[in-house]
Amino acid sequence: GMPVTQTRDLGIALTPALAATALAEHLARQLERKQ
Question: What is the pTM of this model?
Answer without folding.
Answer: 0.50
